[in-house]
Amino acid sequence: MNLTNNLKATPLYDRHLALGAKMVPFAGWLMPVQYAEGIIAEHKHTRTLASIFDIFHMGEFRVKGEGSAIALDKILARAVADQKSGTCRYNFLLNDKGTVIDDLIVYRIAENEFFIVVNAGTRDTDAARFRELLPKGISFTDESDSTAKIDLQGPESADVLVALGLKKESLPLYYRWMNTAISGIPCLLSRTGYTGELGFEIYFPADKSEFMWNLLLAQKNVKPAGLGARDTLRLEMGYPLYGHELNLNTTPVEAGFSEIIRLGDNRDFIGSDVLRNSQLKKRLVGIELDGRRAAREGTNVLIDGNPVGTVSSGAFSPSLEKSVAMAFISEEFKISDGMGLELATEKFKVSGKIASLPFYKSGTARINIIQDKL
Amino acid sequence: MKRYTKEHEWVEIIGSEAVIGITAHAAKELGDITFVEIRPEGTAVISGDAIGTVESVKAASDVYSPISGTILAANSELEEEPGIINNSPEENGWICRLKNIDIEGFQKLMNRDEYNNYIKEPLK
């Protein structure tokens, strides 16, 4: 559906309105930022029970053909060639300056087939980049329009799937995926998410959107959650959001991902030379504020009165009941956990301290759901 | 009796004081309120001056004084529980009290019916 001012609506647009959603523009889409109960209630529900999120706007690509793994290994910052079928791997699309065009998740479907999930706002740029860089003979398809995505997130989410007929012991482990069916609808189900809680991302045919949404919503303990809660949940986990912690002025090393990129492995990929040879300019840190007032993106960070960096994301944390932020600090300033600082805008100044990530340390994302097998 | 502003504040005169808050409509539009700050006691304000800030999860908004006066007190309950504004925007969620108030300014504001009609108008 196309609305005025060129915003796209997901197949669930009418369902969101019926649930009292407030709709806002996001990355070219009209998306639910919250439902009737509000962001804090949705956030807490996700941390304690289970929520569903309409994530139709994100992009899904398929790369297929002999040599796909080797080709993607050159294009993406983390290794692809050694990724096993059945696994998901968080990865980065870089330009030749080593900065981030997008962060994405690569699913290895088979020896010569990959499913790649990208951000909504970067979908077209990403697709153009893959088409340009993948060798002839490897097929690339953008399946975003025909693929629906609903995220089921929260400690009860495995039980929700069990209630829908899936076997608990068959559910994928953390960062693994499986092909399955929910009420007869074929799905790709991965144990991934953006909340820090036990959860799943469900990919299925777009024309089944309403059926799947209603089915999930009818389950015990399940409520809808919007992009507002999705943002506070990811912020409490210290997860980056493209356009904030990751962008064309930031390398994944600066954003804190040097360990997983393993530059020491001498694997060559686009941007690898720059990442190996350039000096770090800034470093992403977590900040806990003294109080509830939020320091939003762009707020200056001061240490001993000197400007040392800028906030990339900041909001009130419903779990911690105080505000938190992520910020880039210039590398010349040596910082350590617990160090005091100030956050200043033209209007106010608040104090805080450097804090380790995640801010919220009780997330259930990695728990073992099959207690008997412990 | 309460009067209302186009910026979605309400004001009620009680004796020689005025009580100020944001309307139920404003509270619903802002969503969960997470922080409230009011300018210090004793600050003289004229109508239309910012008297403080209300933050929701997504944004910060200024609150403007509906009438002229001097800030007498802020609602201290809101320091720890700003969500009271969402639950009871026009009663327990009052934001601050003014003294030395300008009664004439009060009379110029919208009454309940006028405000209800005002918020029904489509945005221009």
Give an overview of the whole structure.
The complex is a heterodimer of chains A (374) and B (124). Chain A is of the alpha+beta class. Chain A is 19% helix and 34% strand. The longest helix of chain A has 11 residues, at 123-133. Chain B has a single domain, classed as OB fold (Dihydrolipoamide Acetyltransferase, E2P), CATH 2.40.50. Chain B has a six-stranded antiparallel β-sheet. A three-stranded antiparallel β-sheet of chain B has the order 4-6-7. In chain B, strand 6 and strand 7 (60-64) form a beta hairpin. The model of chain B has no long low-confidence stretch (mean pLDDT 94). The A-B interface holds A 22, 33-34, 38-41, 228, 232, 291-294, 296, 315-316, 318, 323, 347-348 and B 31-32, 34-35, 37, 53, 55, 57-58, 60, 82-83, 86.
The CATH architecture classification of chain B is Beta Barrel
In quaternary terms, these chains amount to heterodimer
- C-alpha termini separation of chain A: 48 Å
Strand content of chain B: 35-45%
Strand order of the largest sheet of chain B: 1-2-3-9-8-5
Helix-strand pattern of chain A: EHEEHEEHEEEHEEHEEEHEHHHEEEEEE
Write down how many β-strands of chain B occur, each being a DSSP E stretch of 2 or more residues: 9
Q: What is the H/E string of chain B?
A: EEEHEEEEEHHEHH
CATH top level label of chain B: Mainly Beta
Most extensive interface between two protein chains, with residue counts:
A-B, 20 and 13 residues
Rounded mean pLDDT of chain A is 96
Fold-level CATH name of chain B:
OB fold (Dihydrolipoamide Acetyltransferase, E2P)
Give the strand order, joined by hyphens, for the main sheet of chain A: 11-12-13-10-4-14
* Shape verdict of chain B: globular
Radius of gyration of chain A: 21 Å
Shape by Cα distribution of chain A: globular
Unreliably modeled segments of chain A: none
Overall number of strands of chain A:
20
Largest sheet of chain A: 6 strands, mixed
The residue-averaged pLDDT of chain B reads 94
- Helix % of chain B is 10-25%
